[in-house]
Amino acid sequence: MVGGGEIFDQISARLTAAEHLEDVQQVVKVAARELAGAHGATFVLLDHDMCYYADEDSMSPLWKGQRFPVSDCISGWAMIHRTAVSIADTRRDERIPQEAYRPTFVRSLVMVPMLGPDPLGAIGVYWARPGQPDAGVVAALARLAGLAVAALHRFPEGIPDPGFTVAALGAAGGD
User: How far apart are alpha carbons 152 and 148 in whole angstroms?
Assistant: First the structure.
C-alpha cells in the first residue's frame, strides 16, 4: 500500500507532534507497516555494536527488547552498508541469522537504515510469504526513514551513542 504525499504530510505532522522518543517509535512502526502492507514492522536503534529492537508492530512477536550484534543482523548490514536491503526469501539469504528468524513468521523483508552522518538505526518490514518486495515500498520506507531521523534528532537523550563510526564498523567486520 505505498502512499502519496498526503500520507507523508500526515506522518510528518504526527512526528512533529511527538513529545517523547516512544511516540516517534510508535508513529514510525505503524506507518512502516501500513505503507508496506506488511505483516510486521520493527524500529531498531544502533547501540554501540548492537542493534536494539526498540519497538515493533507485528501480527506475532518478533524481537522487541532484544539486542543483536551489528555484524550478525540484517539491520546492522543495512546500517554498515548505508543502503536499504530487500530479501525475497529469508531462508535462502546468507545474511539472515536463521536461528533468530526460523521461529518467526518472517519469510521476506525490507530493512532501511535511518541515516545521519552515521546511522541511528533502521526500519524493518516483514511478510509471511516469500516474494520480492516492491521498489515503491523501498522508496516509501526510505522517505519515512528520513522523516524519522529528523524526529529522532529532537530527542538526543533517547538515542544511544553508537560509540564508533560506520567506517570503523566496516573495517572490523571485514566489509
Answer: 6
